[in-house]
Amino acid sequence: MEQTKPLSLFKNKTYVKLFLASSISIYGDWFDILAISVLVAYGWNTDPVLIGLIPVCFALPGILFGSFAGVLADRYRKVNLMMASDFISAILTGLLVLANHIYWILPLLFLRSTMGLISAPAAQSLTRHIVQEDQLLKATSYNQIVNNSGKIVGPLLGAVILALISPKICILINAFSSIISGLILLTIRNIKENDATAENESEAKPSFKESWKEGWTFVLKQRVIFNSILFSLIGMMGIQLVDFQFPVLLRSVNMEDPVVFGMLMSMTGIGSILTITWMNRFKKIKYGWAIGGGMSLIGFGFAGVGFIAEGMSLFIPALFGLLVGLGNGIWMVAFNFALQKESPKEMIGRVFGITNSLFSAVVIIAPITGGILVQTLGPSAVIQAIGFAVGGIGIIGGILGKWLWKQESNSTAILEPVSKESSV
To answer: For residue range 237-281, what is the model confidence (pLDDT) as tens digits?
Structure first.
């Protein structure tokens, strides 16, 4: 079964352009988020309740329209959808620069987040169409490296620019990044995306509503996809319940120095990048051990942070932050790879759209619930309990993986390294 030597992933010009466009867009977004927060909180001295609506405007479109955006990605040309998203987002970001009150900021953020929903599932679906099967895990790893490094580098660069210039310049940079991303995508607009779509253009397509129902039916009935989403939703719920409560915990043990919190977040990001880079060496994974194992590391890392006490060495929270990051990297790559690998090409947009919708609901509901729990029971107790619960569920996923993710039972290894012939 020896075949011709596959092209290196970064010799795939279409993938390189897609990767470059996505990277520029992601880094621009992280510039933007920091700048908007600074402008609203410090520049305009806005009421905290109104500031609290900003993350809602980022997440609410995902709940309302995420699954529908996935249908669009499966029915229409993905490159065109991504270009439209970039160029319209650039216009909306430009309008943010002109806004002079949060009452303008909120609807513009809502509209821009809605446009971003169209791009995300389209990019995931397009990746599956242009990347060879044995390079899919590698492509997923590269994409996650960009996502995580953007969370670290973007705010740092944004902070430097904010210190030297102004928040509106950072927002303007994001507008230009969207334009550049769209122009890069313009160069691949003529690629052949879906053989089945091209061959059946003359045939009657199912209605939008039927396509939407078909997506949900597939997610609910496909065992690997359903269990991957279910376990990840549980893990995501646990993470979001306590993620925003770490400053409260640090304050309760007299570690209010922002450097401590910044170090904790940085170690999490570093851990994620380390494991994502490590997983880039492999071409196969066992979903149960990867998704469950990643969740376990996240959970036990969170539980460890919950035991931080006054006078403790800073090395301890840094170590637990690294553990969370290591688990986060494994989980993210495994989860995204499972959705890519186990979904038919014509269904990927809907699968990622539905996932985005469900995760967006968690992002809104969980932090509020976590805040109530912490206020009632205290930060240490809540973070420890949720951490151990998530870690335990992850272990269950790993042990029962062969049953829960039954389709992978023929795999011979938890992780199988990429052969030298197919390495980048």
So the answer is: 887 887 767 767 777 776 665 566 666 777 777 888 888 888 777
In a domain, 32, yes or no: yes
**Distance (Å, whole) CA 385 – CA 369:** 14
Supply the DSSP string of 80-134, one letter for each residue: HHHHHHHHHHHHHHHHHHH--SHHHHHHHHHHHHHHHHHHHHHHHHHHHHHS-GG
Tell me the helices (H) and strands (E) count for the chain, helix number first: 17, 2
User: Is residue 99 within 8 Å of 44, Cβ to Cβ?
Assistant: no
Q: In this structure, are residues 261 and 318 in contact, taking their beta carbons and an 8 Å threshold? A: no
Cα dist. 185→83, 147, 194 in Å? Answer: 6, 19, 17
Cα(64)–Cα(92) distance, rounded to whole angstroms?
A: 20
- Alpha carbon dihedral 9, 13, 18, 23, in 10-degree steps, equals 70
Residues 6+ apart with CB under 8 A from 404: 223, 227, 231, 288, 397
Rounded to the nearest angstrom, the gap between the alpha carbon of residue 53 and the centroid of all alpha carbons in its chain is 21
Q: Does 160 share its domain with 74?
A: yes
Tens digits of per-residue pLDDT, 124-142? 888 888 888 778 888 888 8
pLDDT digits (tens, 9 = 90+) for 276-322: 888 777 767 788 888 888 989 999 988 888 887 777 777 777 888 88
Tokens representing residue 274 in the block = 């380390």
Of the candidates 85, 347, 342, the residue with the CA atom closest to the CA atom of residue 197: 347
Instruction: Name the burial class of residue 101, with classes exposed (0-12), middle (13-18) and buried (19+) by CB atoms within 10 angstroms of its CB.
Output: exposed
Amino acid symbol at 367? P
> What is the residue range of 259's domain?
220-418
Same domain as 125, residue 266: no
- What's the pTM value of the predicted model, to 2 decimals? 0.76
Q: CA 263, CA 255: separation in Å to the nearest integer? A: 12
Question: How far is 409 from 333, CA to CA, in rounded Å?
Answer: 19
Extract the tokens encoding 62: 């995902």
